[in-house]
Structure formats: C-alpha cells, structure tokens
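Protein Record: Sequence and Backbone Structure Tokens
======================================================

Structure line: whole-number tokens from a learned vocabulary of local backbone shapes, matched to residues.

Purpose: to set a sequence beside its fold so the mapping can be learned.

___
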Amino acid sequence: MAVMLARGNCSVLDIVQCDAELFYYHLTLYYSTAFKLPINLSPEGVYHMKNLIFALALIISGNVLAADSQYQLGVNGLACPFCVYGLEKQLSKLPGVKQIETNVKQGEVRLLVKEGAVLTEPFAREAVEKSGFSLRSFKKLNAGQ
C-alpha cells in the first residue's frame, strides 16, 4: 500500500528517490497527521524528527544483532512426561537458559539461551546425566533453524 505524502508527491515506496531533507519532512508531516501529533514542521522540527528516526534505527538494529542463541541436544532414554520434567528441571539450572522445548518422540531438546551466554557441551552433558539420561548429540543452531 503506497501512502501519498503531502509535499513532492512521493510515495512511501518511492521515498528512496527523494532527497533526505524531503524524506524527513514527509515523514514528519505523515506522522503528525496520522497520529494527530503537534509536530513542528520548521527546519528545527524536521531536525528533531531526524534525530528520533536515527535513535529508533539504532535501537532496532541493536535488537536485531543481539539475538539469543539456540542449541539442540539429542538425548537418549526419553520416554514420558516425567522424564521430560526431570530433564528440563536440570537444564533450566544452566546459566542463561531462557526456554526449553522437548520432543519426546525424537529425543531432542531445544534450548534458547540469553544473549551473551554460551552453553558448552560439557555443561549440557553434566545436566543431562544428572537427570538420568545420556547426551547423544550437541549442536548450536544458526538463527532461523
């Protein structure tokens, strides 16, 4: 959906073709009318809008780059929900573990680990063995797997 902006007749899809000053002017004007905000369209107001957009872009890019890590563990011996409970209880004690998903049929566990935390195979093996199972495989997953 292309939204026609007030000055210069540029659409949001074609905004790349407009110069930067005109883009910020359009964006300021669009958001001030769309959200009924009292935004100043003077050069000073457009300057503040530029700073706001730049700050938001930094925040968004930081969140994209700061992704959590995922690990997949192959576990031998999983047979029932009680097995899963004991295993997940031990794995949740590992530093940085945010989320655990277990597939009993395939004997696989996916761990979501907080940004900056690293899960090593020896730690994972120890937690799995404490719960009474054996670690068959350990793999760090790439984003989107």
User: Anything to note?
Assistant: Confidence is low (pLDDT under 50) at residues 1-8, 10-18. The chain has two domains: 15-65, 69-141. The first strand starts at residue 69 and ends at 76.
